[in-house]
Amino acid sequence: MAASGKLASFRLPPLPTVGELIKLYKLRAEKQLSQNFLLDLRLTDKIVRKAGCLNGAHVCEVGPGPGGLTRSILNAGAADVLVVEKDSRFIPGLQLLSEAAPGRLRIVHGDILTYRMDRGFQANISKPWEEDPPNFHIIGNLPFNVSTPLIIKWLENIANRTGPFAFGRTRLTLTFQKEVAERLTASTSSKQRSRLSIMAQYLCTVHNCFTIPGRAFVPKPEVDVGVVHFTPLVQPQIQQPFQLVEKVVRNVFQFRRKHCHKGIENLFPEARRVELTQEMMQKADVDPVLRPPELTIPHIRALADAYAHLCIREPGLLSYEFREELRLKHLARKSKAPTGTVTDM
Ligand code: SAM
């Protein structure tokens, strides 16, 4: 591991360029894996700078691919970098990089969606949740189809202080499709305000750092890319279980353009919908004619608290799912219909 504090000592020795490595190992980008590489080290350096000071840091990089971002992380002085890559074709090139940075780069051939990151690092890097974040960062330029489910999983981990957040308030610097980056950071009443804005912002400080034009990637994706930085909050803005908050937010945003009480109604069984919606809105003191994007996090907090209160009083409510009621009704209708009618087709 790097011991010196001098930045110069962290710099990698001369290596083939990332482009040369791609040619050497014939690393054609796989469309199915949505592989788009960043070969411009000025851009990968810029992403890494947004993560904060990496001097002596522990870093988990997700989806290193040919290793451009990995080089920038190592050059920024990270002492211990663990990369998780799903595609085995990249492993030899990463091993070359590992030899150039002795003892500083560990390679895991695996899937970040199932990888147990809490086992990849020693417990002594942890910092108590209430203190400053640990010197441990997650950085990645992932395919869009992975980064969105992954951030939802990590937000739940943040709420429960599990996975990478068993080490404390681990910071994340990740790329997303530009539109998703905008949703993650959207403020109240903005066009992009969505479920994702609430779920991310009630748990983290979220910054949309900068946009990378699609043309900077090889091959060029259809869309531009946003780099987003997350720091978990010491105190989440909503003090209810993640699953409960997620359910309230999902229902509220079900009808984006309608008054918010329309979505809230679907939290309750049809027979008691009007009565319980009214009670919840009154308890929360939220104007039922606000539209979902107009709701602030304190509004959502009040709604989640009111819903939790009703669920304690009537425990069956928490497991009620509107779609399930619809499905059962549909099945019941189907079983009653005589065979040969249109509903059997
Ligand atoms: N970080 C590299 C760069 O910036 O040039 C590669 C970026 S490319 C958009 C995404 C990388 O993530 C690919 O190397 C791909 O194989 C890898 N990947 C995709 N799904 C993954 C998963 N579930 N777990 C780990 N790596 C994954």
TrEMBL record:
InterPro entries: KsgA/Erm, rRNA_Ade_diMease-like_C, rRNA_Ade_methylase_Trfase_N, rRNA_adenine_dimethylase, SAM-dependent_MTases_sf
SMART domains (alphabetical): rADc
Keywords: DNA-binding, Methyltransferase, Mitochondrion, RNA-binding, rRNA processing, S-adenosyl-L-methionine, Transcription, Transcription regulation, Transferase, Transit peptide
Chain residues that bind S-adenosyl-L-methionine: 36, 38, 63, 85, 111, 141
CDD domains linked to this entry: AdoMet_MTases
Enzyme class: transferase
Domain annotation Ribosomal RNA adenine methylase transferase N-terminal: ranges: 43-234
Gene Ontology biological process terms in this record: transcription initiation at mitochondrial promoter
A molecular-function term among this protein's GO annotations: RNA binding
EC number assigned by the record: 2.1.1.-
Family, similarity comment: Belongs to the class I-like SAM-binding methyltransferase superfamily. rRNA adenine N(6)-methyltransferase family. KsgA subfamily.
Protein's name in the database: rRNA adenine N(6)-methyltransferase
Natural source organism: Stegastes partitus (bicolor damselfish)
Organism placement in taxonomy: Eukaryota, Metazoa, Chordata, Craniata, Vertebrata
Gene from which the chain derives: tfb1m
